[in-house]
Amino acid sequence: MEHVAPEGLIIDNREDGLFRVNRQAFRSPEILTLERERVFEKCWIYAGHESEVLQPGDFCSRRVAGRPVILARGSDGQVRVLLNTCTHRGSLVCREHSGNAKTFQCPYHAWTFNNCGELVGVPGEDAYSEAFNRKELALGMPPRMESYRGFVFISFNPTIESLLDYLAGAKEFLDLICDQSEDGMEIVHGTQVYSIRANWKLLVENSIDGYHGLPTHQRYMAFLAEIGGIDPSTVSRLRGEAKDLGNGHSVIEYEPPWGRPIARWAPYFGEAKKAELEATQKKIEARFGAEWAYRVTQMSCNLQIFPNLIVNDIMAVTVRTFFPVSPDHMEVTAWALAPKEESPENRALRLDNFLTFLGPGGFATPDDVEMLESCQKGFLNREVMWSDISRGMKRAKPATTDELQIRTFWRRWHDLITLTPARAEAQRAA
Ligand code: FES
Ligand SMILES: [Fe+2]
Hints:
The protein has 13 helices and 21 strands. The protein has 430 residues and is of the alpha+beta class. Strands 13, 14, 15, 16, 17, 18, 19 and 20 form an eight-stranded antiparallel sheet that branches. It has a four-stranded antiparallel sheet with strand order 6-5-4-7, with no helix packed on it.
């Protein structure tokens, strides 16, 4: 097996404008071990959205950063993330994907926990000594959990900065996305789950990559042109900008060629929708002023929150997270996010848009999956050691088809992956 040192996996030559990533980063099991320790255990990781557990007792079970957890709203109304492992001898206590429950009963020896995580039932409890303490045996919780505008994050790093500080410039874009709604945004019921035979970082790159839009998604662009009114040539020059948002987060924000069911009309929405979308536009302008409202309704953004959350507000909004199973395999979970007060008709329009482009059976995602798997296959040629990510490096104002947003991810990744425990300790002391 090739031995890989994390230092030197990146060439970042700002003077000459060259940026390269060593392809070992995509195929090395040693690097994946370091990523688990130094990235996924150290950062804030997206766990779910408060709207998924609206009522007391609602729960969803899922894997977050590779661990089985339960996102649950307790009977006390509070949202928690519980570690899905029985404090008796280990079994998962919740094996349903979602539902509403007062308790979780472990299937192994039937210990019972309430939806706040407390141990409330132990068959044959009289067999235990005085030292047996139910309180101590509540379900575990990650050391940190915080949320911002409904987005719930957890961290296994007890000393991490607050979520708000961590989000840095990404907060502005979560605000832009959430300001589409007066009542708040909600996750639409239903989850897309798929997997890709490729390294997880290829999906980070792809999700914020404006350069691949036209060549990879020709079919979708042709479809938009055919159903009405989109000039495919506009797609190659998406007017907008790529931005480094701090802490490894990045975004491309641009004026899209497609319609947006919030308030950007396109011919394929039908004439009847025009007046209504204009009225929504006016309403949002009245709340926030013309400039912010324009960005909320008319602009699209692909937002990358380090390390593995993507919120793409394109024709619909997708919330996408993923985690590596092995260096060449990832599991992906995605949801649609929408304004709570949206009419059923507009919701249908949104979901049609969502499935057509973003769904794993749509016009775009299968093409992306194919390209990512194709890159991973290409990486078998070890003689070709580097991937080039230098586009726009010497440009003062990087475009959406440049690669600044991708370099932003990689720079942070490299900082963390090379952060030995000793260096981390020294940084804390300073
Ligand atoms: S492992 Fe859960 S009750 Fe025994
Ligand atoms: Fe794509």
